Amino acid sequence: MTIYLVFLLTHRPAQFYDLANFGWLCLLFFMVVIQQMCGRIGMVTGKGLAGTVCTNYPKLVLYFAVSLLVITNTIIIGADLGAMTSSS
């Protein structure tokens, strides 16, 4: 299986670039969907995502969701800083 993947990478790299672009497109789509869901939850309940999770789920789920939000925001800030330094 690994030899076949190496063969594909060396002989047909354009297909893998297309798959990578499709993956980024899917990631962007899910990011927009999650932002929309958080916005709608906030409009209906008057609370943010963490407040809604806190009232409806156990504390362990709240800590897990907040830790994922912190990790995600850290990665996004790092990507933004990298893009700003490479543009100048």
Please state the average pLDDT score.
75
Major sheet: size, sense and barrel closure? Answer: none
The percent of residues in helical segments reads: over 70%
**Regions with pLDDT < 50 over 5+ consecutive residues?**
none
Let me know the number of strands. Answer: 0
N→C terminal distance: 43 Å
* SSE string, helices as H and strands as E: HHHH
Domain module count:
2
Secondary structural class: mainly alpha
Estimate the strand proportion: under 5%
Radius of gyration: 19 Å
Number of helices: 4
Shape descriptor = elongated
Oligomer: single chain
Question: What labels describe this entry?
Answer:
elongated; mainly alpha; 88 residues; 0% strand; 91% helix; 4 helices
Could you write a compact summary of the structure shown?
The chain is mainly α. It is built from 4 helices and no strands.
Task: Describe it.
With 88 residues, the chain is mostly helical. The protein has 2 domains: 1-46; 49-88. Helices cover 91% and strands 0% of the residues. The protein has helices at 2-11, 13-45, 49-56, 59-87. The longest helix has 33 residues, at 13-45. It is elongated and about 45 Å long. The model has no long low-confidence stretch (mean pLDDT 75).
